[in-house]
Amino acid sequence: MLKTTALATAGVALGVIPTVSAATASALGVKNFESKRPNPPDRKFISEAVEAAIAGTKKSIADQELAWLFENCFPNTLDTTITHHGIANGKPDTFVITGDIPAMWLRDSTAQVTPYIPFAAQDKKLRALIAGVIHRQTASVLIDPYANAFNFDGKETSRWHSDKTAMKNELHERKWEIDSLCYTVRLAYLYWKATADASVFDDAWQQATMLIVKTFREQQRLQGDGSYRFKREFAAWDGDYIAGGGLGLPTRKTGLIHSAFRPSDDACLFPFLIPSNFFAATSLLQLAEIYETELKNKSFAALCRAFATELSALLETHAKKSHLNYGLCYAFETDGFGNHYFMDDGNLPSLISLPYLGAVAAGDPVYQNTRRFILSKDHIYYFKGTAGEGYGGPHAGWEMIWHLGIIAVALTSTDDAEISKCLQMLKTTHAGTGFMHEAFHKDDAKKFTRSWFAWANTLFGELILKVSAERPHLLKKEF
């Protein structure tokens, strides 16, 4: 995302990488592992179930620093980013900022609260908070399904209000990204599966999800180019520039869904973004299940299921390409003319994260080939240095490794050694802050972007919980 990089204590200009000195790291409490959480009266939201999970999980972690990181990171979304939680139009309403930008991204807000869903069944307050996020996302989609980020009430315009697209006061940014709509479906689906609460599937939600499917159909562009265009005057870098008069590079209209931007909020090179099309197929199947079993709308369920089948067949044809060194792999992007871009991006959905999102089986041979390529020196955005190794992408800059990427590798791994290596790198690259960041330099973890990035913090907590539940022996050692 194009967001302002900031230290916890002072903002810095966009694109500047903050540096934490050794003295500062010591002052931040790394040696005595003092909590970096706000004092209880200053926390935005407190869940008793989450607090109990933190206390219980900490006891199972032998490495003191790793336990300290977990305690700081896992509740960070609840501690710091819930800027509104109340009732609107008789329904719960929750506004979740990303951290260092006071706006709500559909993707980030879903990813930030998803790790708390397993505790919602036993915590009514938490359940209402997550239901409030679903209702807020529903209202946002109905305002504009092409927007990725929203302001709280539309009373103040964002810095991007002058973008050459159909901006509204309610929009913080209007970058069309397939995954934004997929994440809204994912949150409602996972919440429903965990709590059996179908109250969120009200008339507005049904209107919003039908609009999601309509938008996906429009962006197949089989009946014309569709309504979406995007230009940013005085774009600071290539990631904000959309070729073709704001439409994107030419494509052969195969039926895959076009995306203007990636989950990083960077412009796509080729408009058929493969991880997001996989994600869309999964979301359509989730909608089909909800509409068939809960809403008893079998006709719309069948429509969603047929659309998912259509996308899956198209991905089978267009997403795979033989790589020079790794055999048949999934490409990151394609254009329908036979051009394929081999890379991955540190944000999610990524190719690495597809099993985590339920889109591809972890044992799929093509996925395994793709994974070997992504985690190799042949991947343009894979970096190995003295501080750590992993992949990033163009958004955070050259030789910058994403914490989200490392976490995604661990979440999708079935190898103890690989998971342990990821945990060790996460432990040693927080630069004395006690929190995850967007990206850090391969040779110096003190050079990082985004000191307040709640998604990375909460997802790190989800990883620790997963390891604790599935591979508890890994937490019984020092890293």
Walk me through what this model shows.
There is one protein chain. With 479 residues, the chain is an alpha+beta fold. α5 runs parallel beside α15 and α10 runs antiparallel to α11 (298-318). It is built from 15 helices and 15 strands. It has one domain (22-476): Glycosyltransferase (Alpha/alpha barrel), CATH 1.50.10.10. The longest helix has 21 residues, at 298-318. The chain has helices at residues 22-27, 48-59, 64-73, 76-80, 106-113, 124-143, 178-195, 203-218, 243-246, 274-293, 298-318, 365-374, 403-411, 416-428, 454-470, and strands spanning 82-88, 91-96, 104-105, 149-150, 171-173, 272-273, 320-323, 327-330, 333-334, 340-341, 382-384, 389-391, 400-402, 439-441, 444-449. The strands form six sheets. It has a three-stranded antiparallel beta sheet. Strands 6-9-10 form a three-stranded antiparallel beta sheet. Strands 13-14-15 form a three-stranded antiparallel beta sheet.
Strand order of the largest sheet: 3-4-5
How confident overall, as mean pLDDT?
A: 93
CATH topology tier name: Glycosyltransferase
Task: Give the CATH level 1 class.
Answer: Mainly Alpha
Tally of contiguous helical segments: 15
Q: In angstroms, what separates the terminal alpha carbons?
A: 31 Å
Q: Secondary-structure element sequence?
A: HHHHEEEHHEEHHHEHHEEEEHEEEHHEEH
Fraction of residues in helices? Answer: 25-40%
How many domains? The number is: 1
Q: Low-confidence parts, pLDDT < 50 over ≥5 residues?
A: 1-29
What is the number of E strands? 15
Shape: globular
CATH architecture descriptor text: Alpha/alpha barrel
| Class from helix and strand fractions | alpha+beta
Characterize the largest beta sheet: strand count, sense, and whether it forms a barrel: 3 strands, antiparallel
Our Rg estimate from Cα atoms comes to 21 Å
Query: What portion of the residues fall into strands of 2 or more residues?
Result: 5-15%
